[in-house]
Structures are given as C-alpha cells and as structure tokens.
Amino acid sequence: MEFWKKYRFMMFLMLVMVVAAGRYMTGIIHVTNNVNGKELPIYSVETEKKQVSLTFDAAWGNEDTDTILDILKKHNLHVTFFMTGGWMEKYPEDVKKIYEAGHDVGNHSETHRNMSQLSVKEQKEEIMIPHQRIKEQLGIEMNLFRMPYGDYNNEVVLNVRECGYEPIQWSVDSLDWKDYGADSIVNTVLNHESLTNGAIILCHNGAKYTKDALERLIVGLEEKGYEIVPVSKLIYKGSYHMDVSGRQIKD
Predict the structure, then answer these.
(1) What residues act catalytically?
(2) What per-residue confidence (pLDDT) applies to 102?
C-alpha cells in the first residue's frame, strides 16, 4: 500500500511537471481566470456565433450511453463527456466508443470528491491519475476538467490550470439529475434565462430521463437556431479574460 501511494505521487508529479513546462513555453499568451480576486472556471463563452455546448457528466452507470451516442450520431452532433477515472476504468469500451465517435473526452476527477476539501496533493492526484489513464488507453492528452458537484475555490482553479487544463463549469443546468422527467429537462433547458450564445449545458449520461429527453432537446435547440458544438470548439484557446459571471471573453 505504501509503495502504491509513493508510485501514484511520483506519477502525477512527473505529469504536472510536463504540462507545466508546456504552459511555460506558451506563456506569452495572456490568460486570466481572476475576477476581483476570485479565480473562475469557464461558465460560458462570449461569442457572436449562435453556438452552445452540450455536456454529459459520467460518474455512475453506463446503461444509457449507447442510446445517447446513437441519438447524437443520428443528428451528426459532437458533444463533451466529462468522465471520472472510476467510470473510465469500469467502462473502457464506452470510453473508446465516445472517443471514436468524435466527442470530447473530458476529465471529471478520479473519485468524484469535493475538490475544495482536498489538499493540493490530493487535488492533483484527482486530476492527473485519470489523465494518465486516458493517455495510456487512447494516446491523447485531456485538457478539459469539470469539478465534481461544481465545487471549487481559488486554489482548485489554479491547480486545474497548472495541470494543463481549462476548468469548465456550466451556465445552463438541465436538472436531469433531479429525475423530474423528460418534459422537465426539455423545458428547463429551452426556457432557461441563460440559454444564449456560448452557453454550456449540463446533462448526465446516468440520469434516469436524459436519454428520453435528448431527441427533443436537440430539436428544440436547433429550432431556436443554435448549433451544438463540443466545448473544445466553443472556448477560446488564445488570449482571454473572464467577467464576473464566468463568461470567457476573447481579448
């Protein structure tokens, strides 16, 4: 057990050093998540394009994953899946399906704990252990991170970015996790006050009614004129700053 702890620590420490070096090499890009002394994740994006991102958190169960992927394929859409390390380990074939279908593979921590309650070492383990798992499984470097429960503080956001990730929150919560039904999910999203250009929509692949609502949700967004794109295509990669609501603004 002691050997495993030391091994895990050395593994994520080396990975952090590598990604930090990469950040240093691109340090000429001006990026700030700090607004009035508060470090913020990206809740939404300021854009003139009528685009939104649909995201799915994957932490429990895979019963609906195939159905969700089939619906997305039917509509020729790509979205973002934020997966925990435990989910990646338990459902490797689903991870592969998601990636091969062209969707974003995002990091949702190793064990879905409240990040703000962890030490710096524990936070980086939660980020970098699943990072290494996906690197070994798919040969890619993840760079999008969603904090479990949306929980963060300044330290968490800074550590996420130090590990080479963009911290991604959401501006529209479908509330699918409350199991109110498919109609509720559709109405909540389509009538949400924050459903505007650059919105990031939160759904869960393991929620009871998400698969039943997805078809109507997609059609409803498209009828409103929105193009659905993955988070990687929505956010800015170059110089940017944030406003007080967590909206990413290009410099």
Answers:
(1) 57, 204
(2) 98
